[in-house]
Amino acid sequence: MTETATAAPESQPFQAEVAELLNLMVHSVYSETDIFLRELISNASDACDKLRYEAISAPELITDGAPPVIRIVPDKKAGTLSVVDTGIGMDRQELIDNLGTIARSGTKSFLSRLTEAKDGAGLIGQFGVGFYAAFMVAERIVVTSRRAGSDQVFVWSSSGGSGFEIAPGSEDDAGRIPRGTEIVLHLKEDAKKYLETHEIERIVRAYSDNIQFPIELVPEEGEPRQINSASALWQRPKSELTPEDYKQAYQQIAGAFDEPAMTLHYRAEGRQSYAVLLFAPSAKPFDLFDQARKGKVRLYVRRVFIADDADLLPAYLRFIRGVIDSEDLPLNISREMLQNNPQLAQIRKAVTSRVVSELEALGDKEPEAFAKIWDAFGAVIKEGIWEDFERRDKVLALSRFTTTKGEKRSLKQYAEDIKPNQTEIYYLTGDSVERLKSNPKLESAAARGIEVLLLTDPVDAFWTSAPTDFGGKPLKSLSQGDIDFSLIPLLEDKADDKGADGADAATTVALIKDALGERVSEVRASQRLTSSASCLVAGGDGRDRQLERLLAMQNKGPITKPVLEINMRHPLVAAVATSGDAVADLSLLLLEQAQILDGELPEDPAAFASRLNAMVLRGIVKA
Length: 623
Ligand SMILES: Nc1ncnc2c1ncn2[C@@H]1O[C@H](COP(=O)(O)OP(=O)(O)OP(=O)(O)O)[C@@H](O)[C@H]1O
Known about the structure:
The chain is 37% helix and 18% strand. It is α+β, with helices and mostly antiparallel strands and 623 residues long. It folds into three domains: 2-226, Histidine kinase-like ATPase, C-terminal domain (Heat Shock Protein 90, 2-Layer Sandwich); 233-372, Ribosomal Protein S5, domain 2 (2-Layer Sandwich); 400-623, Heat shock protein 90, C-terminal domain (Four Helix Bundle (Hemerythrin (Met), subunit A)), CATH 1.20.120.790. The protein has a nine-stranded mixed β-sheet, covered by helices on one side. The protein has a five-stranded mixed β-sheet with strand order 10-11-14-12-13, sandwiched between helices. It has a four-stranded mixed β-sheet with strand order 18-17-20-19. Adenosine-5'-triphosphate is lined by residues 39, 43-44, 47, 85, 87-90, 98-99, 128, 130-132, 181, 255. One of its GO terms (cellular component) is cytoplasm.
């Protein structure tokens, strides 16, 4: 970068997403404008955290020795409110990158949902608009910043709209800002109330009291005074804290707007000492299923922020927010060391087990609070059944399922209702509960009152593909392998269904197999069906059909040939042996209707339709 390139102010456009977001902010989808101050203070606090961390290995960055502080300066005459920090600051490129783009993936699709949605406020909460929230109250924003250790100051300014200007700072700017960032908001007429000191104090108390660094209010008259308590809340004893304190700490740490559905605050002493303050949100963030599957629990060492990407919990708990503050780790722990530090591995293990058992206990003691967590994050937690071998039983125990008996059933409840002689836990996977409920594979189970889990999250097809059991009972798919219900008694009112087979099984099976050829691997008499004519299942060792379909969609595995099961008591099946030259059409129809019931298309839909028409006409004409 040459001096001449930076000497004159330069206009740059905002990334399209930023321009769109600003447009939404200005024509406010969000009525609670107060939060702009929380966002700016939170950024200032992050900047102070980063400085403290970088200064561990480069102490010269804090040459003036001044501790990090955040100042709020109202100026009624100028109509400006300034938020000033002595944190890490930004250089020219950082100003351009950080205040001109949004790096988070999924932003585009989120914004289009936001534009369409009536409830903008709820959605904004999932996203966290950060710095840009300031455009709700300001018609113009001027950011002057000096990166710690640099001799250059840069000024970023924008009136919203489509772009911003960037220029080197004046001598006056350089003198005013020895380190860090000054954000000056030129307030809109209807936002002038934010110049009143009581308003500023109210907002700071409500949203930012737990910021660790002192927040000073610099009034137009009188001395500057600190207006937050600036303590690390997680270091305070539980007995001193109220639910309101925890809610505020959660919202501030997580940048969230919802209430925490679970709060976990404790101190571990022993081989290692550390404080833990973790929360489970009650609302889903917009990027929960982001490919990176990163958690955001913040690691501190003796009150100094170290990192928020240290993977302190496994990916299936990535929705948990909060802080772990260690007394024993070295302060100068490098990012590489975070990956394979044995002390940190111990903390990770212990805290993971604690979170999982707390979730389990919450499910028992406060089902309503737990239901909020499960509704928002159940599909993510279930990844743990697949990934966390060590805690598989516990994760299964806290999981909730929609079953043929109801919603939010635990496997413990399932086990309590198990039928005499039932040795397995049955499930079906598919796209929707409604469709699964009408799946013929449920018929025989229903006739015996056997409860079946109806699994519809994509992740279900994966965790069920590993052998899994609960309380000694293996989980078994109703669309896979042999099913033998013969030892489980039929319900009383279904007893008549048991009647003798209506057709000669061996002949019928052979005729149908002959007609279908290579389309199926096997045809056999079904134990699953009572009223439908046929269904498709995977062979004994085959993958569940739903998983096969999902993998095939991603080109990750071949589709194997299914087994066609036929109901020997069904009149259509009974007719096969005597249907003469209609055997082929009838057999294909049995296959095709089974495909349709599984949510698949027949191989040749046009041929299917004409075959069906021909058969119906034949029946009508005969009649
Ligand atoms: N006062 C500041 N000092 C230093 N850097 C800042 C400051 N304010 C903002 N930034 C930089 O600008 C980036 C963008 O800020 P913004 O508030 O839009 O998003 P964020 O803080 O990263 O995310 P979120 O608000 O969702 O937590 C920050 O990540 C940070 O790098």
